[in-house]
Amino acid sequence: MRKLDFASLQVRDLEVSKDFYTNKLGFEVSEATNPAACVFKYNKGEASFAIRKPIGDLEGKELGVGASLWFAIDGNIEDLQADLLEKKVILLGPIQTTPFGKTIIAKDPDGYNITFLQVN
Q1: DSSP 3-state assignment of 113?
Q2: Residue ranges per domain, the chain?
Q3: How far apart, in whole angstroms, are the C-alpha atoms of residue 93 and residue 105?
Q4: How far apart are CA 23 and CA 89, in angstroms?
């Protein structure tokens, strides 16, 4: 295996998560349709992923533990941080400097970590 082609996250409430990803994080809904999922495009369609209704029973299970999706950004990470804070998005700490660049991590409604990366 050499390339991840697509990723999807199972969410408890599709509409709540769709609102979070579009209105708080700025993702754009793709033209692809599926009644059990919402497909997003980001950064002019360069990265896409989906949120979807559960495939199995999620009752009593903790979602998001150990999972993180990373998205490279074109803009300034400090501007993104200010925008996310203004929209009351939960951030997991301050901006971090990593070997890959600067990152900020947002927590989605189901506990998934969404990492935004400003490449060096």
Answers
A1: strand
A2: 8-56+67-119
A3: 7
A4: 11
Pick the CATH number of 8-56+67-119 from 3.10.180.10, 3.90.1150.10, 3.40.50.2300, 1.50.10.20: 3.10.180.10
Would you state the structure tokens that stand for residue 76, as one six-digit string? Answer: 């300034």
Mean predicted confidence (pLDDT) in 49-57: 90
User: Would the pTM count as exceeding 0.70?
Assistant: yes
- 35 pLDDT more than 80: yes
For residue 103, give both structure tokens. 């990152």
Which letter does DSSP use for residue 91 in this model? B
Sign of dihedral through CA atoms 32, 34, 35, 38? negative
